[in-house]
Amino acid sequence: MAKAVDPTAAFFSELATRSHDPLLRKASGATRFDIVDGRRIRRWYLSIDKGDISVATKASGETSCIIRADKAVFDRIAAGKLNAVAAVLRGDLVVDGDWRLLVRLQRLFPSPPRRRRK
Amino acid sequence: MNDGLVKILDGNTFVVSDERGDIEASLTDPTGLFSFDTRFLSRWVLTVNGERLNPLSVDDLQYFETRFFLVPGTGTVYIDAKLSVIRQRAVSTGFHEKLTILNHADKAVSLEVRVDAGCDFADLFEVKDALKKKGTYSAKTERRKLTLGYERGPFARATEISASAPARYDDKGLTFKVRIPAHGEWTTHIDVVTGLLGAGQAPLERQDPDRVLARMRRNLERWLDEAPRVESDRDHLRATYRRSLVDLAALRFSPPIAGGQALPAAGLPWFMTMFGRDSIFTSLQALPFTPELAATTLRALGDWQGVRSDDFRDEDPGRILHEMRYGEMTAFEERPHSPYYGSVDATPLYVVLLDEYERWTGDRALVRELEVEARAALNWIDEYADLRGTGYIWYQRRNEESGLENQCWKDSWDSISYRDGSLPGFPRATCELQGYAYDAKVRGARLAREIWKDVELAERLERDAADLKRRFNRDYWVEDDEYFAIALDQDGRQVDALSSNNGHLLWSGIVDKSKAKAVARHLLGPRLFSGWGVRTLAAGEARYNPIGYHTGTVWPFDNSFIAWGLRRYGFKAEAAEIAAGILDAAEFFDGRLPEAFGGYPREQTKYPVQYPTACSPQAWSTGTPLLLLRTMLGLEPQGEHLIVDPALPSDIKHLELLDIPGRWGRMDAFGRGRVDVRR
């Protein structure tokens, strides 16, 4: 096994490989993610144009929504271990800007690890 | 109001107080100022010179504002009072209270006016279940305001209290020193502002109360203006209709994501939030009157449609949510409501509503816009809901701690029983779910063929629907007494009690024509029909109890869909009889039908006995008179036209519904009472 991956970075690089997601076909707008890692802020820019997705680490144009979280929190969301909406209600994930975009974006986060009944 | 509580609301912000306007909530008590499922004031008590006040009268001005007339002193003293106090309160982002004191004496008075304020910041779930808080409280006083706060880690909520007149603020309220001249008056405006989502980051915003009120008044006027008009010789019908429209306006709720559009929340006070099932049923009832509610419901529920497999939330891809909450317990994942998906009827009903909406409005654009969601919902029925692989919708919660056991509308623990009263295990496949699935497939096929232009899907859905209908009429039919069993149990055996669910089956169209007559006979027969309406569970079943929540009470909403079902199979007189019973009952409740009332025979009690419940008005009870107007007039869209085929109880001499909106523009419908009902 390789050493533990960075779930946040893995999440964004996986996103970058999807060029289009029909779940986001009604979404358009650019979101900046500020992931606070100690004193450092790592940034990703996610822009969506009717479901067409592009991910960058540099700004290009205006953002309509800024999402900010500690890296520890975002790692858990990116791994499906923490529900993004609950994190927003809690104040762990801070949204500044267009709320509707968040409602669409929360669809991108993965399922939690399954607890199989069988 | 009959529970002695005064309720005003706007969206999911509401105030419940006593008749003085005071709030003295304990943890288990549902009074207070609530917003986003959190209590923002649990204490709000007005005194004058240390004395509590007495109510003379309460004016419910609108659903969002009320006025309390008060006098100092207790009991017998007040007729002689030299002071009057008027509290006028309106809900906005929190509430606004205009406090006026009139001095009737011919000399000046000096008064100490005090408002005690306090807050427990309870989550609605905590109020319902009496749970203890885990965070810390704070109170901060400044020269012109008091801020009450609550924090648990990053979670922060705050209530800010400020008055226009000079006051001394302390941690537990504010005090005014007032001198009022002879025959003079004194007024102050008090604002209570709540810190909502993102509190701690976003500053609390005080809105100009006059502008907020003016906006709400205009909005209500427009709502009433745009709805069709009812004319009838029966005054109570007009009154009930107006009550329903106003209550429906009050129950509108704009979730932060709906872009200012509104959908019906489920009920006050516990259920001022988005519910899949309730919002869909209410939108269906209101379609001929306010079709825009359906459009918003479809969009908002589509936005939140499940995409993951999440056991805690009982979420699957394509599943329509059950309930959304914003409080502390949801935030900390102590409850799964962010949102919770544990309902199995909302998903097929979503497709039913989409199709019915298009039939009324001709809004094909929305059907195209929601194609992905509707397809995912149809897919969920086959891929995720068939837990036994038998071609039926089953339910069994995956969240065994805080998930819902019964995921159909009869969601109480003992609602699904055999004749002998024993309860089946899980999973369960209640009968009405199969009807909804059938209807979703038939309607989905129409949308696929006519609008999505996918003939292959349409044909598959039609084949599936026909197959489902055939199997259902075989597997659920109770031969010896000729009705449909309430459910199949985990072994596929019939859960054989006779229940009102049979009426929903007529509504869905899944019932073989040859069986419909027997079903209708049961629905209007002595075991199910009380004289007011159809009981949830038939008299004679072991668990029958006329005041059992889902085991014998009469639910107005249930009856409105049963009446629709009877019309669908051509039983016009039977549908009229149910409409007559429920609308008569409405008269006893001043036009506001409760969630449920007792299943006692009508001739025994003479009036409908209300089931004790804290939830009123409730959306689908509010929508009931609307759907009954539709069934009595026999309104049915057909192509670009509206068919009118009235069958009214004979005590309604004439009924007109004017300006019915739809794909035809606006149309009028008329009917005369010709159906003799039994009374």
Question: TL;DR?
Answer:
The complex is a heterodimer of chains A (118) and B (679). With 118 residues, chain A is an alpha+beta fold.
Task: Please explain how this structure is put together.
The complex is a heterodimer of chains A (118) and B (679). In chain A, 28% of the residues lie in helices and 31% in strands. Chain A has helices at residues 7-17, 71-78, 84-90, 99-105, and strands at 28-37, 40-49, 52-56, 65-70, 93-97. In chain A, strands 3-2-1-4-5 form a five-stranded mixed β-sheet. Chain A starts with 6 loop residues before the first helix and ends in a 13-residue tail after the last helix. The model of chain A has no long low-confidence stretch (mean pLDDT 87). Chain B is α+β, with helices and mostly antiparallel strands. Helices cover 31% and strands 24% of the residues of chain B. Chain B contains 18 helices and 30 strands. In chain B, a hairpin with a 2-residue loop joins strand 1 (6-10) and strand 2. The radius of gyration of chain B is 26 Å and the shape is globular. The two termini of chain B are 30 Å apart. In chain B, 54% of the residues are buried. Residues 197-203 of chain B have low confidence and may be disordered. Chains A and B meet through helix 3, strand 5 and helix 4 of A and loops of B.
